[in-house]
Amino acid sequence: MSGHVPRRLHFPQLALRRRLGQLSCMSRPALKLRSWPLTVLYYLLPFGALRPLSRVGWRPVSRVALYKSVPTRLLSRAWGRLNQVELPHWLRRPVYSLYIWTFGVNMKEAAVEDLHHYRNLSEFFRRKLKPQARPVCCLHSVISPSDGKILNFGQVKNSEVEQVKGVTYSLESFLGPRTSVEDLPFPPAASCSSFRNQLVTQEGNELYHCVIYLAPGDYHCFHSPTDWTVSHRRHFPGSLMSVNPGMARWIKELFCHNERVVLTGDWKHGFFSLTAVGATNVGSIRIYFDRDLHTNSPRYSKGSYNDFSFVTHANKEGIPMRKGEHLGEFNLGSTIVLIFEAPKDFNFKLKAGQKIRFGEALGSL
């Protein structure tokens, strides 16, 4: 009788070991698929309920890998369609009031304060402001293109840019590889020089960057940060992961994984670029003068990119933009990244983590 008890006690562990042995013989994709349900339970169940599995060789998929596997593009397209559903007149005030209370929206700045005016959530997200709500600073050469929070700013060093303090990403991965000089407005440079040096067109200039995070309650349109000419657009389909500061600290090169629209051109000091980075539930990134741009579309696959030049035989300069002019809009909160060259005496008028509004000064010479 006593001889049977140890077998009964050890049988579940032996069976689990045999099962894990079978899993180890599977192909890697199949192993991941089988282990993800266990991984979800591993992180959700309290008191480390599944921790004993590690003793027999099982390891959970990392939280980052698990999050990256979520079909954020599909979910964001579904959210975008839901946002376009017209709400009954009686339901608009309670729905929008809940959103206003949750995210601290200041409706006194809106061009139309009456909540019944907005037929759906999409119209509410893209609400316009009263003209006097955001005066454009005339004293400084670069202004904030949007409302938001300053995540990072400063000089670009070693072709690496900080998305948040201590977490960097590759400048070339973010803007995309340089192709021919005819296709992109990047200056010619020796193949051995860094990608940063390829962007700097004038001797003595430095390359600068500024990252602005738009929260869900912020004004969702963005404007031209300076007087410049847009000559090229590059669209990266990518993922649509959350870009809030906590996630930006968690996932390295988050901005390089996400869908984004890179506008490049020139201002009076050389190279200038503005990148609109998509995020979860951002159904679209819209550039007002670019009718050929279609973001979060199933026809584009992640890992690819497509280019479009605004320089034509009829228009050899590109698209001129004045400081403060309407440039585009998000369907929900996201991030804007400015990368530009300027003389060494360019100074940012910022502090990391500060709130900023469209039209306020970013920096000047």
TrEMBL record:
<feature type="topological domain" description="Mitochondrial intermembrane">
    <location>
        <begin position="55"/>
        <end position="365"/>
    </location>
</feature>
<keyword id="KW-0443">Lipid metabolism</keyword>
<dbReference type="InterPro" id="IPR033661">
    <property type="entry name" value="PSD_type1_euk"/>
</dbReference>
<keyword id="KW-0444">Lipid biosynthesis</keyword>
<feature type="active site" description="Charge relay system; for autoendoproteolytic cleavage activity">
    <location>
        <position position="223"/>
    </location>
</feature>
<dbReference type="GO" id="GO:0005811">
    <property type="term" value="C:lipid droplet"/>
</dbReference>
<keyword id="KW-0812">Transmembrane</keyword>
<dbReference type="GO" id="GO:0004609">
    <property type="term" value="F:phosphatidylserine decarboxylase activity"/>
</dbReference>
<keyword id="KW-0551">Lipid droplet</keyword>
<keyword id="KW-0999">Mitochondrion inner membrane</keyword>
<keyword id="KW-0865">Zymogen</keyword>
<feature type="active site" description="Charge relay system; for autoendoproteolytic cleavage activity">
    <location>
        <position position="334"/>
    </location>
</feature>
<feature type="active site" description="Schiff-base intermediate with substrate; via pyruvic acid; for decarboxylase activity">
    <location>
        <position position="334"/>
    </location>
</feature>
<keyword id="KW-0472">Membrane</keyword>
<comment type="similarity">
    <text>Belongs to the phosphatidylserine decarboxylase family. PSD-B subfamily. Eukaryotic type I sub-subfamily.</text>
</comment>
<keyword id="KW-0594">Phospholipid biosynthesis</keyword>
<dbReference type="Pfam" id="PF02666">
    <property type="entry name" value="PS_Dcarbxylase"/>
</dbReference>
<keyword id="KW-1208">Phospholipid metabolism</keyword>
<comment type="pathway">
    <text>Lipid metabolism.</text>
</comment>
<comment type="subunit">
    <text>Heterodimer of a large membrane-associated beta subunit and a small pyruvoyl-containing alpha subunit.</text>
</comment>
<dbReference type="GO" id="GO:0006646">
    <property type="term" value="P:phosphatidylethanolamine biosynthetic process"/>
</dbReference>
<dbReference type="InterPro" id="IPR003817">
    <property type="entry name" value="PS_Dcarbxylase"/>
</dbReference>
<keyword id="KW-0670">Pyruvate</keyword>
<keyword id="KW-0496">Mitochondrion</keyword>
<comment type="function">
    <text>Catalyzes the formation of phosphatidylethanolamine (PtdEtn) from phosphatidylserine (PtdSer). Plays a central role in phospholipid metabolism and in the interorganelle trafficking of phosphatidylserine. May be involved in lipid droplet biogenesis at the endoplasmic reticulum membrane.</text>
</comment>
<feature type="active site" description="Charge relay system; for autoendoproteolytic cleavage activity">
    <location>
        <position position="147"/>
    </location>
</feature>
<keyword id="KW-0210">Decarboxylase</keyword>
<protein>
    <recommendedName>
        <fullName>Phosphatidylserine decarboxylase proenzyme, mitochondrial</fullName>
        <ecNumber>4.1.1.65</ecNumber>
    </recommendedName>
</protein>
<feature type="site" description="Cleavage (non-hydrolytic); by autocatalysis">
    <location>
        <begin position="333"/>
        <end position="334"/>
    </location>
</feature>
<dbReference type="GO" id="GO:0005743">
    <property type="term" value="C:mitochondrial inner membrane"/>
</dbReference>
<dbReference type="GO" id="GO:0016540">
    <property type="term" value="P:protein autoprocessing"/>
</dbReference>
<dbReference type="InterPro" id="IPR033177">
    <property type="entry name" value="PSD-B"/>
</dbReference>
<keyword id="KW-0456">Lyase</keyword>
<feature type="topological domain" description="Mitochondrial matrix">
    <location>
        <begin position="1"/>
        <end position="35"/>
    </location>
</feature>
<keyword id="KW-1133">Transmembrane helix</keyword>
<feature type="modified residue" description="Pyruvic acid (Ser); by autocatalysis">
    <location>
        <position position="334"/>
    </location>
</feature>
<comment type="pathway">
    <text>Phospholipid metabolism; phosphatidylethanolamine biosynthesis.</text>
</comment>
